[in-house]
Amino acid sequence: MRVLHTPENIAGQASIIAKAQREYGIVADVLVFNQNKFNYNCDIDLSGKSKGIRYFIRTLNFIKCLFKYDIFHFHFGNSLLPYNVDLPLLKLFGKKIVMHYWGDDVRQSDIAINYVYFKTLEELQKIYPKKNDNIIRKNIKKVLKYINISIVGDYSLLSYSPKSIVIKQAIDLSDFPFVGCRSDTGRLKIVHSPSDRIIKGTKYVLEAIEKLKKEYIFDFILVENISNKEASEIYKAADIIIDQLLFESHGVLAVECMALGKPVLCRIDEKIMKYYNGIPVLNTNPENLYDNLKLLLENPELRIELGKRGRKYVKEVHDSKKIAQQLIHIYEGL
Q1: By the 8 A CB rule, do 133 and 108 touch?
Q2: Range 197-226 average pLDDT
Q3: Does residue 49 surpass a pLDDT of 80?
Q4: Coil, strand or helix: which one is 269?
C-alpha cells in the first residue's frame, strides 16, 4: 500500500499521520506545495516556485505520482492540480481517493453562526464572506463525485460536510511527554498561541490578562511567528494554556497541551458537547474567561487534576498510532 498525503500540511497533521502509518509498514509520503511558517516536516517540498514554473512542475509531479501511489489522501479540499481537475483522472485510473477537511476549507458562515460565539452573521462574514459559502458548497459537491471517502478532522466540522466521517486530530505522543504543571501558587505562566488573532479571540484574552494583572502576579506569553519546535518548549514550561474562544471547538494546540499535562481553556459549543465525552478542558468564552483564569490561578489542585485527565484523554482519543490504524482500516475497505 503506497499512500500520498498532499497538498497541505495543516498543523502538521499530514506528517504526523504519515509517520504513524509508516510504523505499520505502509509507504506514506507527504508532499506540500506551500511550506508554512511552522516548517512542518515533509518528504517532498515543491514550494517557492514562480507561478509559471509552479504549474509546469505540478503537472510533471502529477504524472509521476499517478504511477507511484495507490491511495491519494488529500488534505484541505485541494489536490495535485489546480481546481481539482486531477480527481476525475485519478478515478479513471482506478486510484483510491480520500479528501480530508480541516476547518476553513469547509466552514460556511451561514451554518457556522449556529455554533460560534459571534453574535451576528454580519460579524462572522467579515471573516468568512457570504460569497465564499457557495464556492465551498460547490467544491464539496464537486469533490464528492470523484472521491471514495470524505473525512473531517473533528465533530465540529460535520455540520459543514455531513457526508463525511470523523477521524480526530492526531499527535505523536513521543513528541509531547507528560510534564504536568506546578503545584505551588508562585509566579505562574499563562500562554496563548493564536494562529490568527481575530479567529482565536485574542483581543478578549488581552483584556482579561490586563484585568488580572491588577490582582495577581504572573507571566503572560503570547506565542506568535516562531517555529513549532520553539513553541513546544514554551508550552512545556506553561502552567495555563488559553486556546480559542470563539469557534466551535478546540484545535490541535489544545490536544498538544493536554498531552503535556497542562490545563486548557477553550470554547466548545454546547450543541456539540455530546461528542466530547470526558474532555477535561475548562469550557471558556469571552464572558467567563476572566473567572476561569482566576479559578486556575487560585487552585493548583484543579490545574494538576485537569492536566492528568488531559493526558489520559489524548492517549485514548488522539494518539497518532490509533488514528493511523483507523485510516489504514478505511484504506483497506475502499
Answers
A1: yes
A2: 96
A3: no
A4: coil
